[in-house]
Specification:
The chain is an alpha/beta fold. It contains six helices and seven strands. A seven-stranded mixed sheet has the order 3-2-1-4-5-7-6, with helices on both faces. The termini are far apart.
Length: 205
């Protein structure tokens, strides 16, 4: 992992993802999360202050060790018991059916094999458990899609593997038994990077 990915990018990410609108999206998504929770793509811990009292424990997955120094201050301030790991979302060395809820926020865009990561999420989720997600991805407008496809190769370099053109709803639907998702443009982002998918997927009981 190079200097940019380990030192510079975590700070840029923390700054860009800390806006009022992003915070509001986090709060809305996390309101119904409960039980023993796994967060895939913990990053700098921006979700942590917004977890409700119904969360009993949190295990985090984050392969970029550079995120940890920034996240630690939020972990220290949280009443939630947090178990941090440097695991990769594509290969979770965690037991089958061990989590009540899984959270994934603006992460599926940057995992090289998102299908494999979602399969792993399904495996470690308890029957009846819920996968909560908000991601950016492929727009429903052809002209925006064209630009997303053009810019993604550059985006992957400057944003540590991020793809602008993934069809998130389809990826999640292929992995889970029941999916509810809403699609919208973020108010304060360019359409190319601000087409959001927010929803909940369920593993059949």
């Amino acid at each position: 992992m190079g200097l940019y990915s380990r030192v510079i990018f975590p700070r840029l990410l923390d700054l860009s993802m800390s806006s009022k609108s992003m915070t509001a999206y986090r709060q809305q998504l996390l309101a119904d999360v409960s039980g023993n929770v796994l967060e895939i793509g913990f990053g700098t811990g921006l979700n942590l202050p917004h977890y409700p009292d119904t969360v009993q424990a949190l295990t985090t997955v984050e392969p970029n060790e550079g995120m940890g120094a920034i996240a630690q201050k939020r972990i220290d301030a949280s009443p939630i018991k947090v178990n941090t790991t440097l695991l990769n979302g594509e290969a979770l060395s965690l037991p089958d059916e061990s989590f009540d809820s899984i959270v994934c926020t603006w992460t599926l865009c940057s995992i090289p094999n998102a299908k494999k990561a979602l399969g792993e999420a399904y495996r470690v989720l308890k029957p009846g458990g819920k996968f909560f997600f908000i991601e950016h991805g492929l727009s429903n407008e052809q002209t925006i899609q064209t630009w997303q496809n053009r810019i993604t190769p550059i985006q992957r370099i400057i944003a540590d593997g991020c793809h602008l053109n993934r069809k998130i709803d389809r990826l999640v639907a292929e992995a889970f038994d029941e999916v509810t998702v809403e699609e919208f443009y973020a108010d304060d982002l360019p359409k190319i990077e601000g087409y959001f998918y927010r929803g909940v997927a369920i593993k059949a009981a």
